[in-house]
Amino acid sequence: MGEGIFVTGSDTGVGKTIVTACLVSLLSNKGLDVGVMKPIETGCPKRNGRLIPRDATFLKAVSRSKDDLSLINPYRFSKPLAPFIAAQIDRKEIKMGKISSAYKKLRERHDILFVEGAGGLLVPLARKLTNLDLILELNIPTIVVVGSKLGAVNHTLLTLNWARENGVKILGLLINQPSPISSSRKRLVEKTNPGLIRSFTEVPVFGKVPYIPLISKPHLFSKPALTNILEAAIDVEKLKAQMV
């Protein structure tokens, strides 16, 4: 049976899916069988009468997974809202048991299973249930993706403190540049955030992923040019050491 790793974010829109795909690609290149799971996805477009979970489909393609999409993504909703509200609008209810069951089946098939959450740590999933409760239900360690933008330090420290107080094991952080650096202020934020975050926490930082245009296309992850960029940006050996 493999090991599960939950991927959460310091905020919404920080690039969790992209970072998860980077980790999947790099660890697969190390000879590991890496699976993916996106238990809940909102904002899914409808095609031929069916909701299409774009993030889950993307992760499935990057990992070259043969797992059924219904296991990778048990819940999908049409509105781009917090899962609890999106589920209510679609007249559905998110149940931890269904997610846990799918997770156990997937974990048995892979060396490592990355589980990407919907939004940040305290995003509501159901009545009085958040991503934090899902992590505790699955009983797996967590990587926090930090979007390198204004407010990142505050969001990161709040996330780490809340996780620790509730017994969540944090493996480490990955800093991601979720959008192009288009101004001098953004350049300064991007330059100073990593050092500032390191100075306020003892949690390992596995690297800093630069903004890469068109990275959302799965086939790019098989290209040597992108692989070289990711290998330079992310210290996977440091991550593997934390997993022991």
Give an account of the 3D structure.
- Strands 2-7-1-10-11-12 form a 6-stranded parallel sheet, with helices on both faces.
- The protein has one domain: Rossmann fold (3-Layer(aba) Sandwich), CATH 3.40.50.300.
- It is 43% helix and 21% strand.
- The protein is built from 10 helices and 12 strands.
- The mean pLDDT is 90.
- The chain has 244 residues and is of the alpha/beta class.
Short précis:
The model has no long low-confidence stretch (mean pLDDT 90). The protein has ten helices and twelve strands.
Give short descriptive properties of this protein:
alpha/beta, 10 helices, two-stranded parallel ribbon, Rossmann fold, 244 residues
List the helices and strands and how they pair.
Elements: E1 3-9, H1 16-29, E2 34-37, E3 40-41, E4 46-47, E5 50-51, H2 54-63, H3 69-72, E6 75-76, H4 83-89, H5 96-107, E7 112-120, E8 124-126, E9 129-130, H6 131-138, E10 142-147, H7 152-165, E11 170-176, H8 184-200, E12 205-209, H9 224-233, H10 236-243
Parallel strand pairs: 1-7, 1-10, 2-7, 3-6, 10-11, 11-12
Antiparallel strand pairs: 4-5, 8-9
Helix pairs in contact: 1-2, 7-8
Could you report the average pLDDT, rounded to the nearest whole number?
Answer: 90
The span between the termini is 15 Å
User: How many H/I helices?
Assistant: 10
Give the quaternary arrangement of the chains. single chain
CATH class wording: Alpha Beta
Strand order of the largest sheet: 2-7-1-10-11-12
Instruction: Report helical residue fraction.
Output: 40-55%
CA radius of gyration = 17 Å
